[in-house]
Write a structure and sequence with these properties.
- This protein has 468 residues and is α+β, with helices and mostly antiparallel strands.
- 20% of the residues lie in helices and 36% in strands.
- The longest helix is centred in the first third of the chain and has 22 residues, at 2-23.
- The N and C termini lie far apart (90 Å).
């Protein structure tokens, strides 16, 4: 009996030690940390000028009328101001601020509020749409309290984090949570390696910092999942990726990313089986750009890149991120799987931004408008820019209505800039989806189509339309 008592006491004592050890890692309060960091987090407000063309006539010409083109330039341009809010943080005592590119893109004026009271004008030092990062300079000689970057690679799932920002214009807002996941890709940009967190992030938090418990910036809050506010799924650009871009923007005013000159795709199980690769891994080279560093080094279509500069490539999406981080002009060794064996090639990296490949992919081609004849409307596919600017859920797909003819059955029910999400309870991703749904309704006895839309105020609505 005495032995049992001794064993029980030892067991309880051991459990208490373990419990205390775990509880010591749970912050009792974030107050001291928040108080220290708040002066370094800023609120950003921007003003953008939007120009629209007014109709000088009290009527509209019928679609297709020869007078429509003749008088289309008679309207006088009307300008209006559009305001937006965001967050940022100071990284240098001279007033260098980091934020998201989409917070300041096309802004006419940028006003930054520091520590809740003082306001300063700011100019853009450099901006990078591909990573959604921008660097600003406060136009003042005053000194500020900066924060420093931490090592995001050391951050682990389950670590405590806090976010500070300007959600809905409520500056100086502190929220806490944990790192929920790492290496997330959500389809917003070319280089995605997001930290996912359940710290509450809302509209206006964009560009704000995600801090670890040492008070170091390990992420830049960039996106959320959910249109109407935080649902506990937010995404931050890791500091290690961001810092490379930020340093380049400060030094050069632009980015200088490494470039291989290959088009790549996933290695599927079927491809791995055919190539006698032990498992699906690496990046399959679909094509090699003419005159590129890869072509000069002897890389061929059909090669599978397994390693780049000593780093293993487990998934295709890893390669562009790693290459972009690598210094232009560096000679790197890559491991390739070709003809069922490993070979090595040495490549001198080029610069992505000066490549013909980059110029083609980055060419701003206006979205193509297509006519849905049976509905008498013009539409275009929803873009990533639409999703960002309208703060829609990241996975949203649909068609933006760009024109509605006077004889359209939708005329009195739906407005221009509404987004068609579903037709007959089926998701709409492209024009073919909508045309198919419309034809099915016209061939039925009911002749009524049920649409699910976001209206111009981003409110979700169900609309029933009778078709002739």
């Amino acid at each position: 009996m005495n032995k049992f008592k001794i064993f029980f006491i030892v067991l309880v004592f051991t459990l208490n030690i373990q419990t205390n050890s775990i509880s010591q890692n749970i912050p009792g309060s974030f107050a001291d940390l928040a108080e220290k960091l708040m002066p370094s987090v800023v609120n950003i407000s921007t003003t953008t000028i939007i120009t629209t063309q007014s109709n000088p006539f009290p009527f509209e010409f019928p679609p297709g009328s020869p007078f429509e083109d003749m008088f289309k330039d008679f309207g006088s341009p009307q300008e209006r101001q559009s305001a937006a809010l965001g967050s940022g943080f100071i990284i240098d005592e001279k007033g260098i601020v980091v934020t998201n590119n989409h917070v300041i893109q096309d802004a006419k004026d940028i006003i930054i509020r520091v520590n809740g009271d003082k306001e300063y004008k700011a100019k853009v030092v450099g901006a990078d749409p591909l990573s959604d990062i921008a660097v600003l300079q406060l136009e003042t000689k005053e000194k500020f309290i900066p924060v420093k970057f931490g090592d995001s690679d050391k951050s682990r799932i389950g670590d405590w984090v806090i976010a500070i920002g300007n959600p809905f214009g409520l500056g100086g807002t502190v929220t806490s949570g944990i790192i929920s996941a790492r290496n997330r890709s959500i389809g917003l940009s070319r280089y995605e390696d997001y930290i996912q967190t359940d710290a509450s992030i809302n509209s206006g938090n964009s560009g704000g910092p995600l801090f670890d418990m040492n008070g170091d910036v390990i992420g830049i809050n960039t996106a959320i999942l959910g249109r109407n506010g935080s649902i506990g799924i937010g995404f931050s650009i890791p500091s290690n990726s961001a810092k490379i871009v930020i340093d380049q923007l400060i030094e050069f005013g632009e980015t200088k990313r490494g470039w291989l000159g290959v088009r790549i795709q996933d290695v599927t199980k079927e491809i791995a089986d055919v190539e006698k690769l032990d498992k699906p891994r690496g990046a399959l080279v679909a094509s090699v750009a003419q005159g590129s560093p890869s072509e000069k080094a002897g890389v061929k279509a059909g090669d599978i890149i397994l390693e780049f500069d000593g780093q293993k490539i487990q998934e295709m999406k890893q390669l562009p991120i790693i290459v972009a981080r690598t210094k232009v002009g560096k000679k790197v060794k890559i491991k390739i799987w070709r003809n069922k064996k490993e070979i090595f090639k040495t490549i001198k990296l080029g610069r992505l931004e000066t490549s013909e490949d980059f110029k083609v992919t980055e060419n701003n081609i206006p979205p193509k408008e297509l006519i849905i004849e049976n509905l008498k409307i013009a539409v275009r596919e929803l873009s990533n820019e639409d999703i960002k600017s309208r703060n829609l859920p990241n996975q949203t797909s649909g068609l933006v209505i760009t024109k509605i003819r006077n004889d359209s059955p939708l005329l009195n029910s739906i407005e221009v800039n509404s987004i068609i999400l579903e037709a007959q309870k089926k998701k709409i991703s492209n024009v073919n989806d909508l045309n198919k749904a419309v034809k099915e309704v016209l061939n039925s006895n009911q002749k009524t189509i049920l649409l699910v839309i976001y209206n111009s105020q981003n409110q979700r609505r169900y609309i029933g339309i009778k078709l002739d």
